[in-house]
From TrEMBL, chains A, B:
GO CC, any one term: endoplasmic reticulum membrane
EC category name: transferase
Name of this protein: UDP-N-acetylglucosamine--dolichyl-phosphate N-acetylglucosaminephosphotransferase
GO molecular function, one term: metal ion binding
Pathway assigned to this chain's UniProt record: Protein modification; protein glycosylation
Transmembrane segments: 6-32, 53-74, 86-108, 120-137, 167-187, 199-216, 228-247, 259-277, 283-303, 388-407
């Protein structure tokens, strides 16, 4: 039955993709007429690009999910002998609540430029139903202790194979949600980047689920459900995102907007929680994690941060190069200095020093991995830049699979 | 426990109202800066009025609900002896999904002017989870047969006291949802009207629930739950809407937008379905139902319909009067003629006839109860008009209570 549901889900996903394609074409002129567009800062022409087109795909996604929801439960409908699997339906509905409110938040942000504190609070609260359902469904909050750690501690204390970290696990899941909903938004600004990275991650996570389904014991119905429910959410997302990428890739005919970034991040986070692989999900977010860590000094203003950190466009050569931030040495805080010294030493930062009006100035590349690619690769065409970033994302996937399926077996006796 | 939950819900509602008040003040300049405003067509000044402010209140509403959700279930948390009431949590979550997608739809409509078919399709589909949960929770689809009908049919056939109308009941509930999400949107355009009517209805339905709770047998835990869950959704809604009305009443400092109309309609529909009083809810929508029936000829174009049907403003007297639609007699369809003749006969239509270029023209009032009030009452100040409409809405409530608690007992042996 679960397999049939998966096939129906895949069919609906294809249908959703077709509808996305038509609706995007349909709504491009409407967006322009309503003045909902952005201007591409890395192009010679200043033609308006409709934004946020992600809301159209997100709406189609929700519709596909609404139509799909009853499918996995058909065998119980009209069947009075077996009790209805309430916990499973609860899992799906709680996931959908988080996703639909993330879409609403993203769309509101696109339209209103919400304040930061509201943007952080809303996804945290909207994930409460999800975490509550996780709790009442009696889901595990135990983590497996790596074999090596147990060996190390053996002379002192005999560690158990698993430890129940209880509420810390909920805090971790909450952080996964907040991180994911913002991570894609931070790594953005190049044609096709937001949709492309999401597409790579969702395709990778889908593949991961399929691999797990194949490896599973036929007895393990719980595991089967976890990876099925992930795919129920992921396949329509991957399909809708693929269409969006088609329009968003260089040269962008549409921009995806914050709507897409929140939708995408929340969907991936939800899937990992419902599928019980939130730790594994983080492996697929390695490029985003590096970008986030590298961005911290500017995000938290240890180092001055300009309004935009997009690459700089040179219309003469039709290439983009790294954008820079210029500031007085005296503006730099202690943590900023530490970070600069460390990054400079390992060659991860472009630094120029000069004097003006008797004061020492620094000029460094803006702290995103996009600018880091341009530091090492030099000026390049925007589509090349996006290809390099996609290649990094795909390498991330390869590393994730390597860690999850090879390294993990070295560190853990038991792998779920 | 349920009572404590109700008090906590009421407390959170008050908190929500305070936050709404602050956020509206906070976001008024942001809406203006982002060019999200409308112009009040019934004012001398053409100052921009922020729109759709409903989205701010709706977001606060969702947050209040997210915080509240765990409360009614606290007694089961950590209690392993009793099974968790999954069906109850499912009911709340499915209601929230419908509401949050209605908010998203409304906001998208405000920003994009969605096509009609998309606007009808989306709420229908987003209510699927709600109806599915209704189904799997084994909820009743029986209706009580009026005593008088049974007596009439007695010589021919012995009708049962209740009839299970099965899937027809689901179609009815689906229609309630589509009707409610659009009914408030159709009766709109006067300062304070959208928020005012919703406030009257939600306060009335809340009162109805309280009355039912008081009348209930202490044994009737199901009934207790139905009216409690209604109040869980209604109290925060009433509180947030009251604040919105404060800003939206004459002279409007904010407009509520389609966002509010969809949110409001969906919330009331959801509440009636979860509380098992969808037929009773229709009684509270009497003014909206009359407005809808009266509007049908223009909505379905039996009679030509101008772009706007708002009352006409006269800056000299600072009053509004009925707006009119002018069209050739030859443009009128058969159904339109029938309607005009019928309404004219009973004095429910203002009709002028005149000739231009040898053709006969009609000029009639636009078909809304707003214009009907102005036909009977003559030109009046906009705030007076809204007060009259509010009075009509309150009378509707009185009639609803009369029908529900007095007339129904004459027609039905058993009243739920």
């Amino acid at each position: 039955m679960s397999l049939i549901s998966l096939f129906i889900n895949a069919g609906l996903s294809v249908g959703g993709a077709v509808i996305c394609y038509r609706l995007i074409l349909d709504y491009i002129p409407i967006f322009i007429a309503r003045k909902m567009y952005g201007n591409d800062q890395c192009k010679v022409s200043n033609a308006p690009v409709p934004e946020p087109m992600g809301v159209i795909c997100a709406a189609v996604y929700l519709i596909v999910m609404f139509i799909f929801i009853p499918i996995p439960f058909l065998e119980w409908i009209g069947n009075e002998t077996e009790t209805f699997p309430y916990a499973k339906l609860l899992a799906i509905l709680s996931g959908l609540i988080s996703i639909s409110t993330a879409i609403l938040l993203g769309f509101a942000d696109d339209m209103l430029d919400l304040r930061w504190r509201h943007k952080l609070l809303f996804p945290t609260l909207s994930s409460l139903p999800l975490l509550m359902v996780y709790y009442v469904s009696g889901n595990s909050t135990t983590v497996i202790v790596p074999t090596i750690v147990r060996h190390l501690f053996q002379p002192i204390v005999l560690l158990p194979v698993t430890i129940n970290i209880s509420f810390i696990y909920y805090i971790f899941m909450g952080m996964v949600i907040v991180f994911c909903t913002n991570a894609i938004n931070i790594l953005a600004g190049v044609n096709g980047l937001e949709s492309g990275q999401s597409l790579v991650i969702s395709a990778s996570v889908s593949l991961f689920n399929v691999v797990q389904l194949i490896r599973l014991d036929s007895e393990n119905t719980t595991g089967f459900w976890h990876h099925s429910i992930s795919l129920y959410f992921l396949l329509p997302f991957t399909a809708c995102t693929a269409v969006l990428f088609f329009f968003n890739k260089y040269p962008s005919r549409v921009f995806v907007g914050d709507t897409f970034c929140y939708w995408s991040g929340m969907t991936l986070a939800v899937v990992s929680i419902l599928g019980h692989f939130s730790k594994t999900l983080m492996l697929f977010f390695i490029p985003q994690t590096i970008n986030f860590l590298y961005s911290i000094p500017q995000l938290f203003h240890f180092i001055p941060c300009p309004r935009h950190r997009l690459p700089k466009y040179d219309p003469k050569t039709d290439t983009v190069s790294m954008s820079k931030a210029e500031f007085k040495k005296s503006e730099l805080k202690t943590l900023g200095k530490l970070f600069m010294t460390a990054c400079r030493t390992i060659g991860m930062l472009h630094v120029e020093e000069f004097e003006k009006d008797g004061e020492l100035y620094y000029c460094i590349n803006n702290l995103t991995i996009i600018n880091l690619v341009l530091k090492f690769g030099g000026p390049m065409h925007e589509s090349t830049l996006n290809s390099v970033l996609m290649a990094i994302q795909v390498s991330g996937t390869v590393i994730a699979f390597f860690i999850r399926f090879y390294l993990a077996s070295l560190f853990y006796d038991v792998v779920e």
